[in-house]
Design brief:
Shape: elongated
Number of strands: 6
CATH architecture: 2-Layer Sandwich
Structural class: alpha+beta
Largest sheet: 6 strands, mixed
Strand order of the largest sheet: 1-2-3-6-5-4
CATH topology: STM4215-like
Number of helices: 5
Order of helices and strands: HHEHEEHEEHE
Number of domains: 1
Radius of gyration: 22 Å
Distance between the termini: 43 Å
Oligomer: single chain
């Protein structure tokens, strides 16, 4: 039952989790930062700011196919509308060393495989998460054509990337109170009619 900040919260929490888990002995050989980035950061011609960085890039947001027809749930306060989302990420290493690229991405995949559930211990509070909520990470199997289309659209040349889907992100907590009543519905009856 998170709010609309949950989308940012998932990516930011993922970056923080990987940064905190990155082992010091590996960091000595291959210094690296894990950073949530925007499409502008990647599409920029000047990508030197991303040197020795694993970027976490949200390239697509979709409605979860299993909950596509759900609009309102009974357990939501004031019958707020509910949205169930899947967040599609590309994790990309930016650097010039093949050894660093492959080692760091290998460690990243191993680390995420050991913790495929992002729960309240990992998810940041700014998303308004309930204590019982969690988000599942699944490796996405993108075709070569899909990957090349993404990189063609972004601008810079292709970089080795791994794709993940974070699902199911449930957004239903109202951030603003409902507005005042602006209309009332009346029913009219014919004079002399008996109910």
């Amino acid at each position: 039952m998170a709010n609309f900040n949950a989308i940012f919260s998932v990516g930011n929490s993922l970056a923080q989790y990987l940064q905190n888990a990155y082992p010091p002995d590996l960091a000595k050989s291959f210094p690296c930062q894990f950073k949530l980035v925007s499409s502008t950061d990647i599409a920029s011609e000047e990508t030197t700011a991303l040197d020795q960085v694993v970027s976490i890039f949200l390239h697509r947001v979709t409605t979860n196919e299993n909950f596509r027809t759900v609009r309102v749930l009974q357990d939501t306060p004031n019958k707020q509308p509910v949205v169930f989302l899947d967040l599609h990420y590309l994790l990309t290493y930016w650097g010039s060393s093949a050894q660093a690229e492959q080692t760091i991405l290998g460690w990243t995949m191993q680390q995420l495989q050991s913790s495929l559930i992002l729960d309240s211990s990992i998810l940041s509070a700014d998303g308004g998460w309930d204590k019982t909520e969690s988000v599942q990470l699944v490796v996405a199997d993108l075709t070569l054509e899909d990957v090349l289309r993404i990189w063609d659209a972004l601008g810079p040349k292709y970089r080795l990337s791994i794709a993940y889907i974070a699902r199911v992100v449930r957004i239903d907590r109202a951030v603003t109170p409902p507005g005042p009543v602006v209309a009332t519905r009346f029913t009219f009856q014919q004079p002399g009619a008996v109910e």
